[in-house]
Amino acid sequence: MKSVFDPTVETRKVVMKCPRAGDLLKNYRIDYVQNGSKPIGEAINERSLNSIDVMNELNTLYEKNRDNQRGMTKWEKQKVNALIQYIIDAHHSYLYMVLPKLQSMITTIFNKHVGTHPELSHVHYLFSILKIELEQHILIEEELIFPKILAYEKKPTLNALIDIKEFVEDLKREHEHISQFLKDMREFTNDYKAPDDACETYRLAYVKLDELESDLFQHLHLENNLLFPRVIG
């Protein structure tokens, strides 16, 4: 089998070509959002993983999903307005729906189980702050930054570009903060593995947190590695 990916390929380009690779990299704690320009081989070595095994997994995953991927939208080839609309419809809408539900579940398991599982105090705190940051983040994007980008696409000016660049740098710093929250939560939840004595709500909350992490990584990947470079170069 001919290898599609080799260790010199940028990590973000692995996920662009094979979106399903995002979850594989996430499970190995390889950051393809903040360190997307790093060669995948270097990222694997930094995690002290077996480079040959992980590269084989990535190439096998691509081959298994090759037919399905042909029908998937290649966002790097779509117009900026289409990409923005997709981010809002797919990822912002998901956050509006899931964040309140998760807050309720995590508060419930914190109140019920913190006595026997003190790490839940960290999980509860981290998620509460993350929820506030995400809600503010997506509102600012929808009400301020995305409209500026769309206006610039229609009528590009140097002043508008300078303005957008400043906002994008702020967003990227917020993305770093969000990514760190996710890494910390994964640490405190033991990779989202509920303990043996966990109730059904406890187990479901960890499943939903894992799903949230996957969605956020894809969300931030689209912005950091596709949208922002398209707009500001």
Automatic annotation (TrEMBL):
* One Gene Ontology cellular component: cytoplasm
Tagged with keyword Metal-binding: yes
The entry's keywords: Cytoplasm, Iron, Metal-binding
Q: Where does the Hemerythrin-like domain start and stop, copy by copy?
A: 86-230
User: Do you know which InterPro entries this protein is assigned to?
Assistant: Hemerythrin-like, RIC_family
Name the principal localization, coarsely classed. cytoplasm
Q: Where in the cell is it found?
A: Cytoplasm
Q: What are the leading ranks of the lineage?
A: Bacteria, Bacillati, Bacillota, Bacilli, Bacillales
Q: GO molecular function terms here?
A: metal ion binding
What protein does this entry describe? Regulator of cell morphogenesis and NO signaling
Identify the Pfam families for this entry.
Hemerythrin
